Amino acid sequence: xxxxxxxxxxxxxxxxxxxxxxxxxxxxxxxxxxxxxxxxxxxxxxxxxxxxxxxxxxxxxxxxxxxxxxxxxxxxxxxxxxxxxxxxxxxxxxxxxxxxxxxxxxxxxxxxxxxxxxxxxxxxxxxxxxxxxxxxxxxxxxxxxxxxxxxxxxxxxxxxxxxxxxxxxxxxxxxxxxxxxxxxxxxxxxxxxxxxxxxxxxxxxxxxxxxxxxxxxxxxxxxxxxxxxxxxxxxxxxxxxxxxxxxxxxxxxxxxxxxxxxxxxxxxx
Length: 269
Hints:
Layout: H1 27-72, H2 79-103, E1 140-145, H3 149-159, E2 165-170, H4 173-183, E3 187-190, H5 199-208, E4 217-221, H6 226-235, E5 239-242, H7 247-262
Parallel strand pairs: 1-2, 1-3, 3-4, 4-5
Helix pairs in contact: 1-2, 1-3, 4-5
């Protein structure tokens, strides 16, 4: 409930339902006032939680992402290095668990995003992850739209493990849409918080253009509250991956989206 500098209830926050600055506030009006203030606070609370989750997850994406790369690399490491990597991963995952515990349960509902146009599994059902696509037929192209250099580098190193995939990159939503129109990649990886337009707006532009309408788009975002994931599926993303990136989940998703693209009527990439 809002209060002024002297600790009194801010009657203006209750929609001016009470008259007279010194008028007593009946219990019924207090309850109504509390409900009004709570309802008005919901959007700002949700935005604050989303922003906090995003700001905390972004640096953790670099810490956990590159540590996972080191852990799963083909080059052998010394026992001391292996232990150090394990400690970094343990500490990073502990911090991530604290973030989830502190922020996610306090989440309030936010406005739902409506974009959905094909393609992608219906109703947010994840496509099954199967074995990696066998190379040897032809190379596929994947476009990654991301403005953060560290996140870009991480995904570049992950894609490098798939010699059957060529990676294109763009750092703004509009550039990503234009590049998708020009190259028609097999799949698109899309950040949500881009410097010009959001990933949702970029998805809508792709869906409205017949040239790109059938390209599956995977969201990769630090917006990781439950309503963010729900909005992502309802908007029509093929999958919605949250940062910090989990390497196994990322590679499974990459495999699934490539297989999904290969099932399309006309080949691309």
